[in-house]
TrEMBL record:
Domain Superoxide dismutase copper/zinc binding: 57-157
Protein name: Superoxide dismutase family protein
Pfam families found in the cross-reference section: Sod_Cu (PF00080)
Keyword NAD: no
Organism per entry: Streptomyces doudnae
Signal peptide segment: 1-22
InterPro entries: SOD-like_Cu/Zn_dom_sf, SOD_Cu_Zn_dom
Length: 178
């Protein structure tokens, strides 16, 4: 499944007109997880027991003309049977897990009830027997420019888990609209 992907971090952002209209937006970002001390990394593991160094992640965003957005996640090399929580966060990844900021929210709110899969991008999954996992989130809304920059993997589903890994992703709006 990961054949042909080099062991180092590989990331690609593709901005292209899709088949749905002149303002489609597509992003694909992938990398192998590295320890927090690695220079110029796009993906960090903060808990190698749950997200081993060298395990792999891919995140794709596709936003159609009009704002409907699909975010997909694929991973390999994780702990079989473990349930992970995954959310889009506001800031890029760094050696400090807190650097990614809070969850991206379509309608920003301090109300804890706003932390839900309709107002945020949740990609929770359980790793299969072979350590792979996948999830997809679909929304009728688009990201605000510059306000969604990473995907954080948490040690449990929902909103309370510790941050165990992070991938920087250049999420963006369709056609520059907010």
């Amino acid at each position: 499944m990961v054949a042909g992907i080099c062991a180092g971090a590989v990331a690609a952002a593709v901005l292209a007109a899709g088949t749905g209209g002149a303002h489609d937006y597509t992003v694909r970002s992938e990398a192998r997880f590295t320890a927090p001390g690695a220079a110029h990394a796009r993906a960090y593991t903060y808990d190698p027991g749950l997200v081993p160094v060298g395990s792999w992640i891919e995140v794709r965003q596709h936003t159609a003309d009009g704002g409907a957005t699909v975010v997909g996640l694929r991973v390999t090399g994780l702990v079989p049977g473990h349930e992970y929580g995954v959310h889009v966060h506001q800031k890029p990844c760094a050696a400090d897990p807190a650097a990614a900021g809070g969850h991206y929210q379509h309608m920003p709110s301090a109300d804890p009830a706003a932390a839900n899969p309709d107002n945020e991008v949740w990609l929770d999954f359980t790793a299969r027997r072979d350590g792979t996992g996948a999830a997809v989130a679909r929304h009728r809304w688009d990201f605000r420019p510059g306000q969604a920059s990473s995907v954080v993997i948490h040690d449990m589903p929902g909103t309370k888990g510790a941050r165990v890994a992070c991938l920087t992703v250049p999420f963006g709006p369709s056609g520059g609209r907010s």
